[in-house]
Amino acid sequence: MQNNIIVNLTEPTVFPDLNQAEGKDPNYAREIIAVSRLKFKHFKQMQKLNESEQMQHAISALTGLSENDVDELFAEDAAEITKVIYGFMRKYLDLAKTMMTDTDAK
């Protein structure tokens, strides 16, 4: 299984903080962004946040984008990244639900 899912951005996008962190030109425009696979530690971190902050945190944690960089995403790109993250979460939550149902049946 691959460690990252690559999302093709709808338009080349400049992420100033990520560019600085990676030593790239401040105006470097990216055409793709990698989304790391969700780990259990991310769930634990998200549970400490209020609901409105959880997806922002997940996007930042899994893409390396700062809060300011996330604000540079086009809506369609943010939606695609969110879709990838929800896909990871759904698999985990489906398993947890199945396990709870199995436990309740006993």
Give a written overview of the molecule.
With 106 residues, the protein is of the alpha+beta class. It contains five helices and two strands; from the N terminus they run βαβαααα. The chain has helices at residues 16-21, 40-47, 51-63, 67-70, 75-105; strands at 4-14, 29-36. It starts with a strand and ends with a helix. The model has no long low-confidence stretch (mean pLDDT 89).
Name the strands of the widest sheet in spatial order: 1-2
Structural class: alpha+beta
* Rg, nearest Å: 16 Å
Instruction: Please trace the helix and strand order, writing H or E for each element.
Output: EHEHHHH
- Largest sheet, described in full? 2 strands, antiparallel
Number of domains: 1
The portion of residues forming beta strands comes to: 15-25%
In angstroms, what separates the terminal alpha carbons? 34 Å
Count the helices. How many?
Answer: 5
Helix content: 55-70%
Shape: elongated
Would you report the number of β strands? 2
Mean pLDDT: 89
- Ranges where pLDDT stays below 50 over 5 or more residues in a row are none
For the structure shown, list the relevant keywords.
106 residues, alpha+beta, two-stranded antiparallel sheet, 5 helices, elongated
Quick recap of the structure?
With 106 residues, the protein is α+β, with helices and mostly antiparallel strands.
Blueprint of the fold:
Elements: E1 4-14, H1 16-21, E2 29-36, H2 40-47, H3 51-63, H4 67-70, H5 75-105
